[in-house]
Amino acid sequence: MELLENVLFSIVLNHNPPDSVNVVNSYLKLLKEHALKLAGERTVNDVRIGLSYTAVQLSDQSVGVAMTFNRDIGQRCSSMKQTIAGRQASEVISRAESPDLIERTVAIATINAVLNTDRNNLIQG
Question: CATH code for 2-115?
Answer without folding.
Answer: 3.30.390.100
